[in-house]
Amino acid sequence: MKRIVVIGCSGSGKSTFSRKLKQVTGNPLHHLDKLYWLPDWNLRAAEEQDRIQKERIKDEKWIIDGNYQRSLPIRLERADTVFFFDYPRSLCLYRALKRIVLNRKRTRPDMGEGCPERFDWEFMKFIWNFNKNNRPGLIALLDQAPAGIEIQHFRKPREARDYLRALEEQKEEEVA
Hints:
The protein is an alpha/beta fold. It has helices at about 15-25, 30-35, 45-55, 70-80, 90-100, 120-135, 135-145, 155-175, and strands spanning about 5-10, 30, 35-40, 40-45, 60-65, 80-85, 150-155.
């Protein structure tokens, strides 16, 4: 597990999982939101997003956290592992709202500089409609992924926690 993609709906826990995975694997972590968003919530052009991503995937080890479905094939070209957070929209919406309240007007470490947490109806609608509008495309891209990629499909938060716990135990056994 050297080149890892973490995808799923906003609020599913991708960034939290990715940070913990970084601790276990030691792989460099890249949050696409941090790389793609410019101050005041201005998104980089698609060509610039692709260039940034192509640079990151050249490395031998990495974790890339973020959906950006349009450019997922770039990551899948080199990935050996994908973690897909496929949770109910109510859970993702609750977590996103909780995050907004807890981080109000502060910029999270996994977000672009100058992009403080805020409430945005369009973002809430995106989360609410994610499983209808975005999930089918993600599933199709994963179905077309190059052979040999390990895909971990988490449908419940407990599955992700159990996976990390098992990985941590495995690492401890290797060290002992």
